Amino acid sequence: MDALAHLTALADPARWRLVGLLAEQPRSVGVLAQLAQARQPQTTKHLQTLERAGVVTSRRTGQRRIYALKPGPLRDLAAALGRLADTADQSGGPHTTYDRYGLSLDAERLAAREWGWADGRSFRFHRPLTGRPELVWRHLAETPLLALWWTPDDLRVSELVFEARPGGRIVHEYRDAEDADDSDLVAGRAEGVVEDVRPGEHLAYRLSPLLPDGSLAFTAHVDMGLRPTDTGTDLDVHWRITDSTVDSADFIAGIEIGFGQSLDKLAAALTDTSPNTDTAAATGTVTDTTGTATGTATGTATGTATDTGSAT
């Protein structure tokens, strides 16, 4: 008998009460009905359900039927539930990200009381990357390579336009990675324009996540600098926020972890691209230079277009 059958049998409060009584000692139907303050026919039906599920066993003794609890199925169920809890409780996993995002979301929503509330907020990211600046640049400016990493975990690019020239157009739309047939709502969409292009050295652009009504949540001014190193390239990224609306709190809360996860995917993509190059550490740092609360962004965190940590 599987765990679902056991859970179904135990889900009824009256049956749960009978299981508690049988955990103390085997008892007859009549005594169980008295202790549970229930009618005997109803008690009999509940006990038969528990017996079919394999949770209890019974035998007839004279005129009475005595029921006893089977501890094995309960231990199996407890172990199955424990495994589910352990999976959800993995350190640094999706549930940790979800919880971090929730804490940040609460803080940002409290702060977002008027237009311009987040203007001047600044975020800095650093990653030492495998690959020379020329290769890193291609992953920043060429759409097929950009699409490999330009979303946080659990999301995928569904539409991408990146015209790597001053004045070039940017469109970045993304969906849940498990939304295979695009039947779910779009997780997020952002639009912007490229401002400065110096191949292998510097890239700057403006990008604005869109609210559900199509208006802009805020504008991110993103500045990327590339420096060659002995092991590859140092990438420094500076985000500066302007034009923040009251409704942008959910988006602002997602910048730190969302873009951080994207950069980790970039590091992994470059490592895969450059197997003969000495690898650099794929981890890095991010700071909110205003010292205010920042948080996480994942497709599972909200189920809406609040995953704008990917709007790089």
Report the sheet-strand fraction.
Answer: 25-35%
Q: Give the strand order of the largest sheet, numbering strands 1, 2, ... along the chain.
A: 5-6-7-8-9-10-4-11
Q: Tell me the distance between the termini.
A: 50 Å
Overall body shape:
elongated
SS-based class: alpha+beta
Round the Cα radius of gyration to an integer and report it. 28 Å
Give the biggest sheet.
8 strands, antiparallel
Point out poorly predicted stretches: 275-312
Number of helical stretches of at least 4 residues: 11
**Strand runs, count:** 11
Helix percent reads 25-40%
Mean of the pLDDT scores?
Answer: 86
Secondary-structure element order, as H and E? HHEHHEEHHEHHEEEEEEHHEH
Structure report:
By secondary structure, this protein is an alpha+beta fold. It is built from eleven helices and eleven strands. The strands form two sheets. The chain has an eight-stranded antiparallel sheet, covered by helices on one side. A hairpin with a 2-residue loop joins strand 2 and strand 3. Helix 3 crosses helix 4 (40-52). It is elongated and about 95 Å long.
